[in-house]
Structures are given as structure tokens and as C-alpha cells.
Amino acid sequence: MRRNRSILVSDAAFLLFLVLAYICIVFIAGSPNHYIQNIIILNVAFILAVVTYFTTVTAGLVLNLAFIFGYGFFIMFQTISQGETIGLNTYFWLIMTPLLTVVVWIFTLGNRQLQTENESLKKRAAQLATVDENTDLRNSVAFQKDASLFTGISTRYKIPLTLLVVKVKYWDEIRRLIPEEQLTEAIYDLSQISQSSIRTNDAIYLLDKDDATWGLLLFTDRDGAKIVIERIKDKLLELNDNGFMSKYKVKLGLKIGAVQYQPDTIENPLDFIVQAKKQLEYDV
């Protein structure tokens, strides 16, 4: 409803601006004796409107006041020096110039409201999205939802649950060496290594795309997690020898930390991630 109102205000202001511009053209055409003067004032009016569009209505109105005083002084000078009377031409521009400014401001206000609402919707969509659009992996939002379910199953049925956190070594330096368009592809290729190293009932998440960090929830104990870790590192070594070096011009390495779920020491999914990340310090 609010979005529709913003669109209506913006459209109405745009149409009104066109109507006012048309009125100005008709007025100028009907006053051939003041053609040059009217054209100059029309250009000034449009410049004030453009300034208002890119700044604020306050700046536009202040400039309009300066224009009114300047134009009034000019008319007064003509009246005193040349004996001309104040006619319709003068009153027309004194009214029309501020009107154009106000209409442009209303149009700008509607557009900015739409932009603000659009940014808000994008942020909300990003917060609610549970799948990364480039890798099709579940993200940290999905992890927090799923981890509560997994830990509940682990506690109820006494099934060991281990979280692996996988991070690319020296990612900040590597991303400077890889072209921007290849970064997403590199993350996808690395995701496939982890995906192919786990069972179908385990889950993988892209926890931080900017820092190239994944999380793997495994229904296994620490010993079982070690097997998965070795499997991931072996596949990475193989891919480094068979394609990564030629594709990305760098050798990619991984740091992997693992922590087994303990209800007494892990209070929530974020705590689960934090404790697993601490284990990365021991994998050099």
C-alpha cells in the first residue's frame, strides 16, 4: 500500500511537471515581444528545478528566493529607468518558477521513497534467503535453523554430531589475485569438494561467502570427522595438481576445524560455529 502511494505521488508529480512545462511553452509563444527574456527565465527555472532534484527542497527554495529578489530588482529597475509597467509576464514567472521547483521536489521525494523501500526489500530478502544464489548452498540463516533441529536429534537419540568449519587459507590475498568474475566460480569449485566428501544425510552450508567459509554438519564423532577432513584435503590436493593451478593461477589450501556437539558447552548454533572456528587455529 505504501509502495503504491509512492508510485502514485511520483507519477502525479511527473505529469504535473509536464503540464507546467507545456504551460510555460504556450505562454512564451504567446508573448513574442518578451521572447528572449522569457527563454532566459525558463532556463533559470529549469536549472533551479535540476538543483532541487540533486540536492534538497530547502536548497531549491533558497535559490528561488534569490531568483525572486533578483528578478524583482530587475523589474523595478526597468520600471524606474524605462517607465514600463509590471505586467502579467512578471507575475507569471514569480509563480511558475517556485511551482516547478516544488513539483520536481515532490517527484524526487516519491522516487527516493521508492529507492528506500527497494533497498529495504532487498535487505529483507537477503536476511530471509536460506540459499546462496550462485552456489545453491544453504547459508548461515539456514544453518541456524537446521542446527537447532540437528542438535535436538543428537541429544534425543544419542547420535554424535560434529561441525566442521572449512576456510580457504590466505583468502584475502588470493582474492586480489583472482579476477572478480572467477571468485564465485572458485567458491563453487571448492564447495563441490566438500559436498562430494560427505554423506547424503549430512549437510553443508556456505557460512561466509566473503571470507570463503563453509560449515559441515556431520552425524559422526571426532574420529569420523577426521576421515572426512582427510578426504577433503586429498581431493583438494588432487584438484590443485589437475586443474586449480592452471585455472586460477594460485594453489588453494584449506584450514579445517572440528568440534563435536556437547549440550553442556554449546548453547546455540552461533556458539557451535565459534567453537569450531577456534579449532582452525590448530590447523596450519
TrEMBL record:
<feature type="transmembrane region" description="Helical">
    <location>
        <begin position="61"/>
        <end position="80"/>
    </location>
</feature>
<feature type="transmembrane region" description="Helical">
    <location>
        <begin position="12"/>
        <end position="29"/>
    </location>
</feature>
<dbReference type="Pfam" id="PF00990">
    <property type="entry name" value="GGDEF"/>
</dbReference>
<feature type="domain" description="GGDEF">
    <location>
        <begin position="129"/>
        <end position="280"/>
    </location>
</feature>
<keyword id="KW-1133">Transmembrane helix</keyword>
<feature type="transmembrane region" description="Helical">
    <location>
        <begin position="35"/>
        <end position="54"/>
    </location>
</feature>
<keyword id="KW-0472">Membrane</keyword>
<dbReference type="InterPro" id="IPR029787">
    <property type="entry name" value="Nucleotide_cyclase"/>
</dbReference>
<protein>
    <submittedName>
        <fullName>GGDEF domain-containing protein</fullName>
    </submittedName>
</protein>
<keyword id="KW-0812">Transmembrane</keyword>
<dbReference type="InterPro" id="IPR043128">
    <property type="entry name" value="Rev_trsase/Diguanyl_cyclase"/>
</dbReference>
<feature type="transmembrane region" description="Helical">
    <location>
        <begin position="92"/>
        <end position="110"/>
    </location>
</feature>
<dbReference type="InterPro" id="IPR000160">
    <property type="entry name" value="GGDEF_dom"/>
</dbReference>
